[in-house]
Design goal:
20% strand; binds aspartic acid; binds magnesium ion; 2 domains; globular; eight-stranded mixed sheet
Amino acid sequence: MTNPTDSHWVVLKFGGTSVSSVSNWKNVAAVVRARLDEGLRPVVVHSALSGITDRLEQLLAKALAGDWEPVMEQIERRHCDLSRDLGIPISPELEHHFAELRKMASGIHLIGEVSDRLRARVMSTGELMATRIGAAYLASEGLDVQWLDARTLLHAEERAGATARANYLSATCNFEPDPALQQRLAQAGSVLLTQGFIASDSKGETVLLGRGGSDTSGSYIAAKLHARRLEIWTDVPGMFTANPRQVPNARLLKSLDYDEAQEIASSGAKVLHPRCILPVKQYSIALTVHDTQRPDLSGTVVTATGGDGGARVKAVCTKKGITLISMDTLGMWHQVGFLADAFAVFKDHGLSVDLGSTRALSRRWCRRSASCAASK
Ligand code: ASP
Ligand code: MG
């Protein structure tokens, strides 16, 4: 297949708020039905219930401190309440995930430390639990849905030089179109449902794609299936000229090209994870952004030709949690390796440098100075 517009796969990614209430789940079911009616094969990829990944981080901290039961109970209650509200029973699979979490939390308490490997396993449980509920609900709505373990779909790539921590907690995956996977999934249920955020490494261990990584899961799966479209369903109706929560008269950006969307996503807009653009861009797969609460709004469409090409400011973004580091050194003339040494420190700590500026001369004579803005 050379053109994704011939593909019958469509990947629908729903974020945490989109999968946390009965009214949103009704809209999810309606969107899935609409795609089936269009003759498409929907693959639903979804996040953990909103706030649960934060709770799991808290569970890890509390397990170290020995006081994890109350957080664990909150986590269980959220999932049981949603199941009850959706009118589905607590499945043995969900009970199994609860039991595993409890086992891991008490293990961490006993040992008094948490490895990156175990952290990834604990955090992955959010998506595993939520998708058990999602699949059961869609099945109860009469859809022929099959739950898939994302760790059998997405495989982390070996990154020379990446720290063990980055490999477990912020992995990247291969995303070339995968005909064997397309064939395997073609024989599965008419609606496929899987987790965002998680993948497996070459040892079969659970790895994460970094916080907010479910968009990237959707994009990887869309690329591997050479899907017609990746739809990102969230709690705002698209990408805006500014954060509509801070700037009430911000305008919806109806269409963007991939580079514009990448720029906006990388500069602090929360709508899309910055890593999710490349896979769809590489295979010219259209990416659309929609509001789960208002599914009839048209949203934002990101394609190769989406932008109007005009030289004007498209959006203004802010980014929080940035650390500015300035450094300088004496006697820099022809000094080799100053910047290499400086950047190696960021690499060792798994920090990505967002912006860098360097000059050979600063105000004081004969100093090389560099500034870097870094974030996780
Ligand atoms: N649940 C994960 C997080 O909160 C991944 C995601 O929602 O995209 O970071
Ligand atoms: Mg998100």
